[in-house]
Amino acid sequence: MNLFERFFQKEKRIIGDVVDLAEEQVWEADSSNDYVPSFFYGIYIHNGRQRIGYCDLRVGHNQEMYYAGNIGYHIYSPYRGNHYAYEACKMLFEIAKEKGMEWVIITCSPDNEASRKTIERLGAEYLETVPVPSDHWLYRRGETIKHIYRRELQGHAV
């Protein structure tokens, strides 16, 4: 068995139609992650070896998550424009439902047009545009305004 086969045998891969998610890390709820468990995944082309980005799911709701969102994603430049983030988010919705979540918050910065389009394509409801509190970790990294969306999970087709 080669290294590639051993890697995929060990990883927790969730198979999708367009992309697959490979669980890479889990953080238990504590002060370092705003007291919500966090699950980190690599995004791969379906049935492939090519990692095209990453995403995460933060399970829980609190003030920190209102600004940061329960879902985050990043697609590497060469793979953008193929709706891979959309596909990964649909899979994260299913994982969130399995973990007992009834809805998720997804946010984006006003200048991130691609993310806004992805969120709207996912059927999320726009709630508001808000300034990020100056003591929030997003603010410290330069993200001072967020569009806030909510996506119902229960009884909603993904």
Task: Explain how this protein is built.
- The protein is α+β, with helices and mostly antiparallel strands.
- It has one domain: Aminopeptidase, CATH 3.40.630.30.
- The chain is built from 5 helices and 8 strands, in the order αββββαβαβαβαβ.
- The chain has a 5-stranded antiparallel β-sheet with strand order 1-2-3-4-5, sandwiched between helices.
- β1 and β2 form a beta hairpin.
- The chain is globular, with a radius of gyration of 16 Å.
- The N terminus is likely disordered.
Tell me the structural class.
alpha+beta
Mean pLDDT: 91
Our Rg estimate from Cα atoms comes to 16 Å
Number of strands: 8
Per CATH, the class reads: Alpha Beta
> How many helices in DSSP terms?
5
Overall domain count: 1
Give the name of the CATH superfamily: Gcn5-related N-acetyltransferase (GNAT)
User: What percentage of the residues does DSSP assign to strands (E)?
Assistant: 25-35%
Globally, the shape reads: globular
Q: Helical percent range?
A: 25-40%
CATH topology: Aminopeptidase
**Sheet bearing the most strands, described?**
5 strands, antiparallel
Give the topology:
Elements: H1 3-10, E1 12-15, E2 19-27, E3 38-45, E4 51-58, H2 63-68, E5 71-75, H3 84-98, E6 103-108, H4 113-121, E7 125-131, H5 137-140, E8 145-152
Antiparallel strand pairs: 1-2, 2-3, 3-4, 4-5, 6-8, 7-8
Summarize the structure.
The chain is of the alpha+beta class and about 160 residues long.
Provide the descriptors you would attach to this structure in a database record.
Aminopeptidase; 158 residues; disordered N terminus; alpha+beta; 27% helix; five-stranded antiparallel β-sheet; 5 helices
